[in-house]
Design a protein that fits this description.
This protein is an alpha+beta fold and about 375 residues long. The protein is about 55% helix and about 20% strand. It has helices at about 1-25, 30-45, 70-80, 85-90, 150-215, 220-245, 255-270, 285-305, 340-345, 350-355, and strands spanning about 50-55, 60-70, 100, 120-130, 130-140, 275-280, 310-320, 320-330, 360-365, 370-380. The strands form two sheets. It has a five-stranded antiparallel β-sheet with strand order 2-1-5-4-3, with helices on both faces. The protein is elongated, with a radius of gyration of 29 Å.
Length: about 375
């Protein structure tokens, strides 16, 4: 009876460990982060001294090669990324795990760099997406004596199946994000063409009128030239605003600093007053900050271009364990039940998708003629 209880306890602990490892991996969205967490989780799961994951490229090397248990200094001394040869090549061209008592005694083993750690007991599993090998994850030098067991092999194979899903999802997420960036730039290009072309066309007609009136009606010529100056200033503001939006967001100094810079530029470029009130202590993961920045950018664009706002305020703070980012304006507002307008012309569906991609929640408070508040809440 005690043996059965012990067995159940061991099985429960193992399932809990696998579940924790899988959750750790699926919590991330970028491919590189997913690879790093897979390697770290696999090493912890099977109590290995060393772990690595290689993603092959089409040129006989590896597009990504992530390691655990090797310091940056040691990695630099090891030298270039490994090639697809020896044991790595054998695993990439197969679809079965490799479990070895001493890898150095295998025929496929080839001499490694002098600075490379000495590997002995070895367990490698391909990460498969159908018949395609996404990569290989391997462990070496189990901390407890005896090397890797058959149970370890089954456990790592199970974990690799979940890792394949996480890698595929991360790649899909990055691809969708790239498509979103392209669509956003195309939209901005159209806005640039429409807004500035219209201003320049009016500017040209007004200049022609002033030229025609110069001799016979000097007073009206002065007024037309004043109109030329106003139109030229508006065209310049349009160019500045759109070019700023086309530039990639530089979040190296953090979200708050980047938002302040963006607000300052928009405040100079538009007649509306654009302000910011932000808590400097709010810090989000890098990818979350990038999404929050883009949502703010879109909300500001809507307020300044579509709503005719006189005042726009960006607010960033915390509430109930969440970071709360708001863009509030006193513009024309809109009817949130009008799906064609709210989800199409204003890009609110895109903003909601962005928010969901980082586990956030986006809400829109708007009524006609009473302004709009776009609110993003993200768990800290």
């Amino acid at each position: 009876m005690e043996t059965e209880d012990g067995g159940c306890g061991d099985q429960g602990a193992t399932l809990h460990a696998v579940s924790s490892a899988v959750l750790a991996v699926t919590r991330h969205l970028s491919v590189h982060e997913v690879l790093q967490v897979i390697v770290r989780a696999a090493a912890q799961l099977l109590d290995a001294r060393y772990a690595a994951l290689g993603v092959p490229d089409d040129e006989g090397s590896f597009a990504e090669f992530v390691v655990e248990g090797v310091s940056e200094e040691e990695w630099e001394r090891i030298g270039p990324l490994p090639r697809q040869h020896g044991m790595l090549a054998a695993m990439l061209h197969g679809d079965t795990p490799k479990r070895l008592a001493d890898i150095r005694k295998e025929p496929e083993f080839e001499g490694w760099p002098v600075a490379h750690p000495v590997l002995k007991d070895f367990l490698g599993v391909p990460i498969l997406d159908g018949e395609d090998v996404l990569g290989i994850v391997f462990l070496a030098n189990k901390r407890r004596p005896g090397g890797f067991t058959e149970d370890d092999e089954e456990l790592l194979t199970l974990f690799a199946a979940h890792a394949a899903i996480a890698i595929a999802n991360a790649r899909l997420h990055e691809h969708n994000r790239e498509l979103t960036v392209v669509a956003e730039r195309n939209r901005l290009a159209r806005e640039l063409h429409d807004a500035v072309a219209q201003k320049l066309f009016s500017l040209r007609l007004t200049a022609r009128t002033a030229s025609a009136l110069a001799e016979r009606d000097p007073a009206r010529t002065v007024k037309e030239l004043e109109q030329v100056e106003r139109l030229a200033a508006e065209a310049l503001n349009e160019l500045r605003a759109v070019i700023f939006e086309l530039r990639p967001a530089d979040l190296a100094d953090g979200l708050v600093s980047s938002l302040r810079k963006h607000v300052e530029v928009l405040d100079r470029a538009h007649e509306a007053s654009v302000r910011i009130a932000a808590d400097e202590a709010v810090v989000l993961p890098e990818e979350h900050e990038a999404v929050a920045y883009r949502i703010t950018q879109e909300a500001l664009y809507n307020a300044l271009r579509h709503a005719g706002a006189r005042t726009v305020e960006v607010r960033l703070g915390t509430r109930d364990g969440n970071a709360v980012l708001e863009v509030a304006d006193d513009g024309s507002g809109f009817d949130t039940s009008d799906t064609a307008e709210s989800q199409g012309g204003l890009g609110l569906a895109s903003m909601r998708d962005r928010a969901a991609s980082i586990g956030g929640d986006l809400t829109i408070d708007a009524t006609p003629e009473n302004g709009t508040t776009v609110r993003l809440e993200v768990p800290l």
